[in-house]
Amino acid sequence: MSEPGALGLGPVVLQAGIDSDVNPAYLAIFVVYLLLVLAIGAWAYLKTNDVEDFWVYGKRLGPWLATWSYVANFVSAVSVIGYIGSVYGGGYSIVTGIVFGLMLGVSGLYFVVHKVRELNHVTFPDIIAELTGYEIARPITGTVLLANAWVYLIMQLVGAGLLVTVITGVPYEYMIWVIGGVFILYTVLGGLVSVAWTDLVQGTLMVATVAVALGYMALDLGGIASINQQFAAIEPANVAPLGEGAYTVLGVVASIVAFFGTIFTSQATIVRINATDSIRTAKIHLAAGGAILSVFYVMLVTLGAGTTVALNGAGLAVENVDRAFPVLITEYVPTTIGTVIIVAILSGILSTTDTRLHACGVTTARDIYDYFADGEPSDERLMNVSRISTVVFGLAATAAAVDPPGTIIGLYNWRAILLTSALLIPVYVTLYRRDTAGKAVLLSIVLGAVFGPGWEALGTPLGVPAAFMGVGMAVVGLAVGHAAWRGDEGTPTAATASDD
Amino acid sequence: MSVLGMPTGMFLVFVATLVAGSLGAAHFVIVHVLMGKPVDETIREEPPTATDGGHDDV
Question: Domain for residue A255, yes or no?
Answer without folding.
Answer: yes
